[in-house]
Amino acid sequence: MGMRERLSLFAVVAGLALINAVYAGPSIATVSPLPTGTATVAYSQALSASGGAIPYRWSVVDGALPDGLGMNADGSIAGTPTTPGTFSFGARVTDSQGIIDQKTFSLTINSAAAAPIISTQSPLPAATVDAVYSQTLAASGGDGPYTWAAAVQVLPPGLTLQDNGSLNGTPTAAGTFNFTVKVTDRVGVSVTKILSITVNPVPREEPSPRA
User: Fold this and answer.
1) pTM of the prediction?
2) Residue 83 near residue 67, CB atoms below 8 Å
3) Which of 28, 102, 108, 182 has its CA 20 to 30 A from that of 146?
4) Which domains does the chain have, with CATH numbers?
5) Distance set, CA 162 to CA 150, 178, 185, 205, 208 (Å)
6) 97-149 pLDDT, tens per residue?
7) CA-CA distance, 12 to 190, in Å (whole number)?
8) What proportion of the chain, given as a percentage, has pLDDT over 70?
9) Could you report the per-residue pLDDT of 158-171, keeping only the tens digit for each?
10) Please, which residues have CB within 8 angstroms of residue 148's CB and are 6 or more apart in sequence?
């Protein structure tokens, strides 16, 4: 083989290598196992890939996702799982040139968390108009930490419920008030309870006795 032929062959091989480098297929980057989910709690997780020619198209090709979950063409897994257990499935990504990559994933769905319980009793300790008031609501069970909010009926004027369960402020109106509070745990399970509080008027000053 002459020098010219060898140079031509080298050019062809180099060109093919360059083409393969430019058109290398996609590679799934997401690692397995996927983050765990909880039955009856909304779940969302996006799969990712690199390389190849975008856009990508994703699909499930082996096994099955947990009941209640589905995979979108953009690689996102979303839904509300209904059945606890560990599930195995194959995910396939196809780039715009039709080149594919495939990977097996594991996803564990935990049993539904028990709902938290609001342990604060009603009625709450009484308050007084124009006097600073502070009371911390309490909950147990579920999966803490908890987030608190007032729901439905409004709080007594001047009082505010913080998301940590602290009910505080300076009430401005007397009366008995009923209001609903909601506590939500870390995985989104929530429960409500109606509480009552009496706000007393400002005590009347007794007249000083005459000399």
Assistant:
1) 0.52
2) yes
3) 108
4) 24-110 (2.60.40.10), 117-200 (2.60.40.10)
5) 9, 17, 15, 34, 42
6) 999 999 999 999 988 777 889 999 999 999 999 999 999 999 998 878 899 99
7) 66
8) 85
9) 999 999 999 999 99
10) 137, 161, 162, 163, 164, 165, 181, 182, 183, 184
Q: Tokens in use for 24?
A: 């290398």
CA atoms of 187 and 154, how far apart (whole Å): 26
pLDDT, residue 119, reads 95
Q: Which long-range contacts (CB under 8 A, 24 or more apart) does 80-88 make?
A: 80/40, 80/41, 80/42, 80/43, 81/37, 81/38, 81/39, 81/40, 81/41, 81/43, 81/109, 82/39, 82/40, 83/39, 83/109, 84/39, 84/109, 84/110, 84/111, 84/112, 85/109, 87/63, 88/62, 88/63
User: Between 51 and 3, whose confidence is greater?
Assistant: 51
Token look-up 């990977």 returns: 103
> For 171-209, what is each residue's pLDDT tens digit?
999 999 999 999 998 878 888 899 999 999 998 876 666
